[in-house]
């Protein structure tokens, strides 16, 4: 408090200036260190209240959240804390209506973006999650994204400087991913995803990708070393031209970058919108392996880019905040939580 006992106004102004500088600088550090988010899935019948969940994020220093639908209680709880950045999801089952009727999109934007507390820090709208080319929603995805974008642009175009409309895809869209430089979208996915990549490039938006070394590992445990999937390999496992890969996470992410480059887009960011490892219910699904994965992926993305994008810190969202007892069909789907529904950590994790 002595700091504020300025004897004259000049000292007082200096004190205020230093105080503001300090706040400004600590703000910079905060955003710099905040590359890790956590997905808040709610497919469980025993989860804490939305307000308790937002408090749990804050108490653990988790500065980014992904939600899968515009749950009003979550948005209201977040409205008090603009320091939490949000990816807001549009459920897959809403895509067709948003695509075929612009007024539905205008109402969606009004009800879920513009009318809730203005302090909710929404950075990305993910229209759909893991839509695949054979899904009935696939043909409606780009028009739905366009309608939401247009609704935002006509209601409040300034908001589009910080809020990007995008979608979240999975690695099944890659026909080839090994080595990472050979990454490309499959023939069956191309007609669906390439116009979306072009839309994102046109708007300066990132692509969101769900990346699971766990599923790659259990799909091919003979050829994929567990240590490569868990970030514990002592050295380079895959040498790809000039780039050496010591972990599978980077390899899959760079395969996405290669696929996007092959479409002619070189400067798009890929944000990892989900990554995780189950602690029970299947091959390699143990508390020890899961805690190793989560801590290593946190440490990795906070300090590194991928080999192809070495100058850019990776943005990633861990899947998920809680074990969700109503997910399935695989037993492992119920064991991806960092926390139990009673809000106790399942293993010690430092964010
Ligand atoms: C991790 O998974 C592997 C492969 O299933 C298993 O053999 C190993 O026991 C697990 N490690 C730990 C520490 O749980």
Automatic annotation (TrEMBL):
Pfam families linked to this entry: Glyco_hydro_17
GO molecular function, one term: glucan endo-1,3-beta-D-glucosidase activity
Enzyme class label: hydrolase
Enzyme Commission number, as recorded: 3.2.1.39
GO biological process: carbohydrate metabolic process
Gene3D superfamilies: Glycosidases
Signal peptide per UniProt: 1-33
Sorted UniProt keywords: Glycosidase, Hydrolase, Signal
Reactions catalysed, as given in the entry: Hydrolysis of (1->3)-beta-D-glucosidic linkages in (1->3)-beta-D-glucans
Alphabetized PANTHER family for the sequence: GLUCAN ENDO-1,3-BETA-GLUCOSIDASE BG1-RELATED-RELATED
Family statement: Belongs to the glycosyl hydrolase 17 family.
Name of the protein in question: glucan endo-1,3-beta-D-glucosidase
